[in-house]
Fold this sequence. Notes:
Elements: H1 3-13, E1 17-26, E2 36-39, E3 44-46, H2 51-67, E4 75-80, E5 97-105, E6 109-114, H3 118-127, E7 132-138, H4 146-149, E8 158-163, E9 180-183, H5 188-199, E10 207-209, H6 213-225, H7 231-234, E11 237-238, H8 251-270
Parallel strand pairs: 6-7, 6-9, 7-8, 9-10, 10-11
Antiparallel strand pairs: 1-2, 1-5, 2-3, 4-5
Helix pairs in contact: 3-8, 5-6
Amino acid sequence: MTWVAAVARLRARRESGVLVTVATVRGHAPRDAGAKLVVGQTETWGSIGGGNVEAVAIDRAREMIAASNPEQEPELIDFALNDKVTNQHGVQCCGGTVSVLLEPLPVVRAVAIFGVGHVGLELARILARQNLDLHLIDTRSAILTEERLDVLADAVAQVHVHYTPLLPEEVLEELPRGTHILIMTHDHAEDAALCDAALRTNHLGSIGLIGSAAKWVRFRKRLATEGGHDEATIDRIKTPIGLADITGKEPATIAVSVAADLLRAFETEGN
């Protein structure tokens, strides 16, 4: 398996890893600069030459994985390959020196937009420029046509489209752990059902709801009386979403505000 395929496999499994690259070589070494190794929690793919260099790199990579820090910086490790150096995993007497770069591959964040109408599509266009797993969910097939979503063709994010004509809340259980939820469908009844279901789904991240203060008053009462949720649970839902000092009502303006608020939350989450 190529290192590119290995990185893709880790991402698909939503597992963190480390990409190890031979950055520089002086003199003789087992592998040339550019050789790569991908380290996962339990597996490795590729090789940077075996021996002490590879063993130390794998050990350090696994320490980085265990740290689970999404903001972890890459690290550069230098090795002298001669019999005068005491190494953790034996001696390599190639005679050269090697620098190895370890780049963390954290599990990417996931965002789910329920309702891909005017605001939802504008928001998807912005978030698609981020390194995310982006889930788009709607009950209307016409909203999710290839032609309409063609504006996301150059997305950096991995975009997952879910057409759910009956019960969009069923998608919640399928979403990755920690997925941030944004509820903005065309139907207030659908929004209410999604709020109730999201509060009952324990593995999700933040929950945001678009709408007015009057809408939230009605929803809050319904979630308490019909849903049986306590106040602390209901407070998991953030509404209104977006930055308070951006008050424009155009779909693109609302989308910028919501995206900025979410990205700011990501920054706080990472600290």
